[in-house]
Amino acid sequence: MRYRAIQEHARRYPIRLMCRALAVSAAGYYAWRSRPESLRSIQAQTLRSAIRVVHQESRATYGSPRIWDALVKQGHGIGEHRVARLMRLAGLRAKTVKKWRAPTQSQHRFPVAANTLDRAFTVEAPNRVWAGDLTDVWTLEG
User: What is the reported pLDDT for 115?
Assistant: First the structure.
């Protein structure tokens, strides 16, 4: 990862300076640069594109377990944790949909305060009508 950062900034800063700052050897950087890409990283690129396709087809609702299942059914030999790691590195997350819940209980047996204002918001003088809204009032009962 450090070598990739050095390669990205090689035009702006001296390589030896960046190697010293990132605590890697310059020889190691040059060896990494001339080395062919590993089979695992090539497979990871292929898997990332397959993961993106499945994620887009699911309209971004699939998480790593379902994407892993879809990839296994397609014939990819991959573990669920690797799918989760590749998704995390690619910034892919499943959309979470919360079920709608009514905020109040309208069918209860408690007395309801009378609506004395009855939506007549215009008043003749100040301090005649006061109104407020209590969304949450914590009590010992919950």
Answer: 81
